[in-house]
Amino acid sequence: MKYSFDMHIHSSLSPCASDDMTPNNIVNMAYIKKLNIISITDHNSMINVSSAEKIAYKRGILLIPGMEVNTKEEVHILCYFRNIEEGLEFGKLIYDSIPDIKNAEKFFGQQLALDEEDSVIYREEKLLTSASSYSIDEIDKLVKKYNGIIVPAHIDRKSYSILSVLGFIPKNLDISTVEISSECNEEMIEKMNIKGIYNIITNSDAHDLWQINEAENFMELSSLNLNEVFRYLRNKEKRIK
């Protein structure tokens, strides 16, 4: 069966995201838009994922534990995990690896950790968008250690993408899937020379509720479960449509 997805959504924990991007609002918008699979991928943290997972479960939506890591090279890498516990352990390492710079809320925006009722647990004071001290190679190895998978984010963009920073995708990295933005067209895909080499997925990178994707991107799975999603993302023989 085909299942709709949007696996790159920022919550109010990301300073660049709207305060309306609460766990309940995100899940309910995904439900309205008939999405089957979502992932909340905040910058360098998974704190709001636990609250969202419980809400998603009630709505019959599969939530993949995730995070968008900003590597030492200033490359954004999506990291997905099989369970929240392993993701949170990885998240602690990433949190400790970013510089202790205080978030300037008036300039960057608030970083809100929320519970299942969307009540504020605390405001994160450390700026989460900073670059980690871990390189792409190190992130690749760490994510594998925690049974996760990495997907280079928005590789077609001119900033914070693996192609704009490095100019290529290193062959030593365990990468089967890459993400392109919704603005990427067939001509751009051809120029990047990724077609037929990697699975290609399109996510929203939503920072506001209205930006969350409609049910227009699908992956074909035998059933709706996390293992199937991981199997699909790892299989270079399949292509996401």
Automatic annotation (TrEMBL):
Any one GO molecular function term: 5'-3' RNA exonuclease activity
Positions of transmembrane segments: none
SMART domains, alphabetized = POLIIIAc
- Polymerase/histidinol phosphatase N-terminal domain mapped to chain residues: 5-73
The record, for Pfam families, names:
PHP
Q: Which PANTHER family match?
A: EXONUCLEASE, POLYMERASE_HISTIDINOL PHOSPHATASE N-TERMINAL DOMAIN-CONTAINING PROTEIN
Protein name as catalogued: PHP domain-containing protein
Q: To which species is this protein native? A: Acidilutibacter cellobiosedens
